[in-house]
Specification:
Blueprint: H1 11-25, H2 34-46, H3 50-63, H4 68-80, H5 84-94, H6 102-114, H7 118-131, H8 136-148, H9 152-165, H10 170-182, H11 186-199, H12 204-216, H13 220-233, H14 238-250, H15 254-268, H16 272-284, H17 288-301, H18 306-318, H19 322-335, H20 340-352, H21 356-369, H22 374-386, H23 390-403, H24 408-420, H25 424-437, H26 442-448, H27 456-465
Helix pairs in contact: 1-2, 2-3, 2-4, 3-4, 4-5, 4-6, 5-6, 6-7, 7-8, 8-9, 9-10, 10-11, 10-12, 11-12, 12-13, 12-14, 13-14, 14-15, 15-16, 16-17, 16-18, 17-18, 18-19, 19-20, 20-21, 22-23, 23-24, 24-25, 24-26, 25-27
């Protein structure tokens, strides 16, 4: 559940802010005690309103010119406004006055980070560490700075240290996973979380991040298992339900995934991505009415969610409602025109509608964006062959075989085109090459060329190279 930033502040603070703003609006002279002014400035900083914070700090300094806290808050506001030079000038005025105030060193570090003086920023945080009672946040700051320097090993150490002080630091768990991923060491990531769980078996965040680590390694059964433990420990951990559902989709457990996406929304409220994923689950179950319902809910919540528009197109495409499919594929392409899969699906629908010029352009877009989209080349060649451009279709596949000789279906399809175009000898030769590369894929060949299933030369090649006969 999203936390309202106002929840951090008492009613008295909110009333003081309202009074302060009313006095400013009425051009009245503002006079409040130092503690109230400090609360008002902190309120604006926490709310992400640095200009109001800066104005409030300036008014406070006019009343109490040498107040260290007000100067510090003003420096923090200046950092948020991306003015580190002014912030550093203020900090220089106060850092000798309160040498044991960790907030001064942290604010100075933030300013130095904005100026990309990372080593100096790190040194400031180590100074803060010496005088701070709460060290977890400072270790987090250090970790972020090391990440900025691309020093992920050091960042990892800092985030791990932060967890020693705060075992429920969700951000630390997340950043540790990112560091291991950046180091190309997902195995170590799982080992880290497993060792942490050995010491703290009832830490839901550790189980959750173990699940994330397994998911990144595509070990989806283990991921589902880890998310289950996270949920047992904390039944309100909505992200665990969501990511468990994602793992279940990879395991083709679509009904179970739907239940977990629905639970996610029970905890967090309506969510476009949950509805979109539920739509995909129903699509895989071939329950297209239900799929459409959820895809539509997704785009109502997030109109720019191209995957949901595309999903609607797939639903209509599967029901041979090509005009509707064309419309929704086009909506997806309007949002993401660089998606080769969208262009490919769009091209096939345009062909079904007989819009040949547009169809050719769509295939060209798809294969330009992703030259390794093998099914697109196969479908485009079929369009050309059926349209009387047999030579072009054959040339297209021969060119693709030169570009990517590992795609067995190119050989099978070229064999059929050559044979049907009067080059029987060449066609049989390509068919034999295809069978030798992958015998089992011959079934797709006969699905596409059912009339050749009774052709003696093809059957003889199959019989000669059938692994069961040798």
């Amino acid at each position: 559940m999203m936390i309202d930033r106002n929840d951090y502040f008492s009613d008295d603070v909110r009333k003081a802010v309202e009074s302060f703003e009313r006095m400013l609006q009425n051009r009245e002279r503002v006079y409040m005690d130092a503690e109230t002014l400090e609360d008002i400035i902190e309120f604006y900083i926490t709310q992400g309103k640095p200009r109001k914070a800066l104005n409030a700090a300036q008014i406070a300094l006019e009343q109490i010119p040498f107040n260290v806290t007000f100067k510090l808050k003003k420096a923090q506001a200046l950092n948020l406004l991306n003015d580190p030079d002014s912030a550093l000038a203020l900090i220089e005025e106060i850092e000798l006055l309160e040498p044991t105030n960790p907030e001064i060193y942290i604010t100075k570090s933030d300013a130095l980070e904005l100026k990309e003086r990372y080593d100096e920023a790190i040194a400031c945080l180590y100074n803060a560490m010496e005088c701070a009672d709460e060290k977890s946040d400072i270790y987090m700051h250090l970790g972020f700075l090391y990440e900025e320097k691309q020093d992920f090993q050091s960042a990892l150490q800092m985030f791990t240290r932060s967890l020693e002080f705060d075992q429920n630091n969700e951000q630390a768990f997340f950043e540790i996973g990112l560091c291991y991923e950046s180091l190309g060491n997902n195995d170590e990531s799982t080992h880290f979380y497993e060792k942490f769980i050995d010491r703290h078996p009832y830490n839901a965040n550790a189980w959750y991040n173990l699940g994330i680590s397994f998911s990144k390694m595509q070990r989806y059964e283990k991921a589902e298992w880890a998310f289950d433990y996270a949920i047992v420990i904390d039944e309100n951990l909505s992200n665990a339900y969501f990511n468990k559902a994602n793992a279940q989709m990879h395991l083709n457990k679509y009904v179970e995934a739907i239940d977990n996406y629905l639970t996610t929304m029970e905890l967090d409220g309506p969510d476009a991505f949950c509805h979109c994923n539920i739509g995909e689950c129903y699509e895989q179950l071939e329950e297209f009415n239900e799929a459409r319902n959820h895809y539509k809910k997704a785009v109502q919540l997030l109109p720019q969610l191209d995957e949901a528009w595309f999903g609607l197109g797939i639903c209509y495409d599967n029901e041979d409602k090509m005009i509707e499919a064309q419309h929704y594929y086009k909506r997806a392409l309007d949002i993401d025109p660089m998606n080769a899969e969208y262009w490919f699906a769009y091209a096939d629908v345009l062909f079904a509608l007989g819009l040949m010029t547009e169809c050719e352009k769509a295939f060209e877009e798809a294969t330009t964006l992703n030259p390794k989209l093998h099914e697109a080349w196969l479908d485009w060649s079929a369009v050309k062959f059926d349209n009387g451009e047999q030579e072009e279709a054959i040339t297209m596949l021969l060119d693709q075989i030169e570009e990517n000789y590992t795609v067995t279906q190119y050989y099978y399809r070229a064999a059929g085109y050559l044979y049907k175009n009067g080059m029987q000898k060449e066609g049989i030769a390509f068919f034999e090459r295809a069978v030798l590369r992958n015998f089992d894929e011959h079934t797709a060949f006969f699905d596409f060329f059912p009339d050749l299933l009774q052709s003696k030369p093809f059957l003889e090649v199959l019989d000669a190279h059938n692994p069961r006969n040798n």
